[in-house]
C-alpha cells in the first residue's frame, strides 16, 4: 500500500481517498461495488454536518430529524464533543482491558449516579447496542444456571421487540424475517404479547431467568405500554426471582426527556448505546445491586474495544452537555410542541412517544414514499412501517426547525399518496 505522500495532520479522509469532487451518484455506484448489500443502497452520501444540518456529496442540505437513529444527541460536529474526543485521541486512544483509563472510570461512576443505582451496582462497557444486549443475555443465562439447579431456562421478551442483530440479541428480537435465516438461535427465548398484563402474569414464574423489555418499543414504531406495565414487570420478576432487563439502547440518555425512560422503576440490568456517545460508538450494561453485579465473574465476559478512552470520553462529553445545557427540559418542551403540531394534521391518525422519540401514523400506507419525498425536500426522517414515521432528532433541535417539517408535511403527504395510487 502506498501512502499519499502529501498527507499531513489535518488531511481529511476524503482527501486521503482521493474522493474530492465526487458526487452522490458516482460514490453510490462505488458503494454498491464494494459494500455488502445488507443495507440496500444508501439514500445519499453525507459529507458534512453542523448542529441539526447535514450536507450530501452534491452539496444539498438536509435538516436531520433522525439523528443517525437516535444517536447524534448533540447534533453534528458539536464543539465540546469534538474537542474532548480529539484531545483524548491525541493523548491516549486505546489501551486494551488489561488497563483502564480515567475517562472509563469517570463514565462508569457518572452512569451509576444518573441511574440511581444502589451500592454495589456496576457497569460493563461494550461498543454497540447489540453487544450490550449480548452481555445482558449472558447475565440472564448465568442467573438461570446459578439458581434453582439450572431450572431457570426461560427468557422472556416481548412481541415486536427489537434488541439487535447478533445471535443472542437476535434471539430476543421478534421479527421473523430477521431471525429465521439464522436459526438455530440460542434457545429458551419466548415472546409474549407486549403490554399485556395478563400475559405477563401467566408467563413469569420460577422457571424464568429474565424478562427483557424496551421501556418504549422504538423499532416497532415508538410504542409504549398501558400505565403500570413496567411496575408490574418489576413486581412479578422480583416475586419469581427473575431478572428484569430494560433495554434503553434507544430510549436512554435523555432521548425521552428523562435520563432513562424507565425512571422510577429500577431494573436488575439496563442496556445503553445509541445516544450515549453522541455519535461515537459505545454501549453499556448497568447492573443494579451487588448480587446481579457479580453474576459475570472474572474471565466470563470481555471485549477488546469496550470502554476505550476515546469512546468513554465521548460519552462523558455528551452527558456533561446534556446536563450543562439543561437539555432534558428542552427535550420535554420541544417534544411536546412537536406532538401537538403533528396531532393537528388531519391525515395524522396517531402520535406516540415521549420527549424527542416520536412516532406518528398516517391515514394511508404512504410512509416510505413520504420519507423519500421528505428527503428530496431536505428533511431526514424514517419510517418504521408502511404507515408509521419516526422522528428522533438531535436533542438540541429547536421547535422552529421541526415546525419547518410539520409545515411541509401536508404537501409531502399529498405527493406521497398520489404516488401510491
Ligand atoms: C438499535 C437498538 C439495538 C441495537 O443496537 P446496535 O447498536 O444497532 O447494535 C438494541 N436495542 C434497541 C432497543 C435498539 O433500538
From TrEMBL:
Q: What is its main location?
A: cytoplasm
Q: Does the keyword Transferase apply?
A: yes
UniProt binding sites for N(2)-acetyl-L-ornithine: 165, 303
Which pathway does it take part in?
Amino-acid biosynthesis; L-arginine biosynthesis; N(2)-acetyl-L-ornithine from L-glutamate: step 4/4
So what does this thing catalyse?
N(2)-acetyl-L-ornithine + 2-oxoglutarate = N-acetyl-L-glutamate 5-semialdehyde + L-glutamate
Where is pyridoxal 5'-phosphate annotated to bind? 129-130, 162, 247-250, 304
Q: Per its UniProt entry, which superkingdom is the organism in?
A: Bacteria
Q: What is its EC number?
A: 2.6.1.11
* Compartment(s) where it occurs, according to its Swiss-Prot or TrEMBL record: Cytoplasm
Cofactor: binding comment: Binds 1 pyridoxal phosphate per subunit.
Question: Record's InterPro entries?
Answer: AcOrn/SuccOrn_fam, Aminotrans_3, Aminotrans_3_PPA_site, Class-III_PLP-dep_AT, PyrdxlP-dep_Trfase, PyrdxlP-dep_Trfase_major, PyrdxlP-dep_Trfase_small
Post-translational modification N6-(pyridoxal phosphate)lysine, affected residues: 274
Cofactor(s) annotated in UniProt: pyridoxal 5'-phosphate
Question: Is the keyword Transferase in the record?
Answer: yes
Which miscellaneous remark does the UniProt record hold? May also have succinyldiaminopimelate aminotransferase activity, thus carrying out the corresponding step in lysine biosynthesis.
Subunit-structure text:
Homodimer.
Q: Which family does it belong to?
A: Belongs to the class-III pyridoxal-phosphate-dependent aminotransferase family. ArgD subfamily.
Q: By what name is this protein known?
A: Acetylornithine aminotransferase
Q: Which organism is it from?
A: Arthrobacter mangrovi
Q: What is the lineage of its organism?
A: Bacteria, Bacillati, Actinomycetota, Actinomycetes, Micrococcales
Amino acid at each position: 500500500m502506498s501512502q499519499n505522500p502529501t498527507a499531513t495532520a489535518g488531511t481529511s479522509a476524503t482527501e486521503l481517498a482521493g474522493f474530492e469532487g465526487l458526487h452522490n451518484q458516482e460514490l453510490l455506484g462505488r458503494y454498491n461495488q464494494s459494500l455488502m448489500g445488507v443495507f440496500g443502497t444508501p439514500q445519499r452520501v453525507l459529507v458534512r454536518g453542523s448542529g441539526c444540518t447535514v450536507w450530501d456529496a452534491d452539496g444539498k442540505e438536509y435538516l436531520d430529524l433522525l439523528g443517525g437513529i437516535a444517536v447524534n444527541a448533540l447534533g453534528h460536529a458539536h464543539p465540546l464533543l469534538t474537542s474532548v474526543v480529539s484531545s483524548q485521541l491525541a493523548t491516549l486512544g486505546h489501551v486494551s482491558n488489561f488497563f483502564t483509563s480515567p475517562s472509563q472510570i469517570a463514565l462508569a461512576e457518572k452512569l451509576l449516579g444518573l441511574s440511581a443505582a444502589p451500592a454495589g451496582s456496576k457497569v460493563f462497557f461494550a461498543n454497540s447496542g447489540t453487544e450490550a444486549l449480548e452481555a445482558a443475555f449472558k447475565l440472564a443465562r448465568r442467573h438461570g444456571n446459578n439458581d434453582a439447579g439450572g431450572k431457570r431456562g426461560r427468557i422472556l421478551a416481548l412481541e415486536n421487540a427489537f434488541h439487535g442483530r447478533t445471535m443472542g440479541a437476535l434471539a430476543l428480537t421478534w421479527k421473523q424475517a430477521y431471525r429465521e435465516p439464522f436459526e438455530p438461535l440460542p434457545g429458551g427465548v419466548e415472546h409474549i404479547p407486549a403490554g399485556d398484563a395478563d400475559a405477563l402474569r401467566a408467563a413469569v414464574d420460577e422457571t424464568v431467568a429474565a424478562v427483557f423489555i424496551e421501556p418504549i418499543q422504538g423499532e416497532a414504531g415508538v410504542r409504549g405500554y398501558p400505565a403500570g406495565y413496567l411496575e408490574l414487570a418489576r413486581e412479578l420478576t422480583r416475586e419469581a426471582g427473575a431478572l428484569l432487563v430494560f433495554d434503553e439502547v434507544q430510549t436512554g440518555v435523555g432521548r425521552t426527556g428523562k435520563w432513562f425512560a424507565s425512571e422510577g422503576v429500577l431494573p436488575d440490568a439496563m442496556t445503553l448505546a445509541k445516544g450515549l456517545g453522541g455519535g461515537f460508538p459505545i454501549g453499556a450494561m448497568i447492573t443494579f445491586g451487588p448480587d446481579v453485579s457479580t453474576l459475570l465473574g472474572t474471565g466470563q465476559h470481555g471485549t477488546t474495544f469496550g470502554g476505550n478512552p476515546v469512546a468513554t470520553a465521548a460519552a462523558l462529553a455528551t452527558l456533561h452537555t446534556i446536563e450543562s445545557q439543561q437539555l432534558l427540559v428542552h427535550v420535554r418542551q420541544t417534544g411536546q410542541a412537536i406532538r401537538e403540531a403533528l396531532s393537528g394534521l388531519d391525515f395524522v391518525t396517531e402520535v406516540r412517544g415521549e420527549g424527542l422519540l416520536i412516532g406518528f401514523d398516517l391515514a394511508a400506507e404512504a410512509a416510505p414514499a413520504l420519507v423519500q419525498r421528505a428527503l428530496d425536500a431536505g428533511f431526514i426522517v424514517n419510517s418504521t412501517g408502511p404507515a408509521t414515521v419516526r422522528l428522533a432528532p438531535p436533542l438540541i433541535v429547536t421547535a422552529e426547525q421541526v415546525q419547518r417539517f410539520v409545515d411541509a408535511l401536508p404537501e409531502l403527504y399529498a405527493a406521497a399518496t398520489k404516488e401510491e395510487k
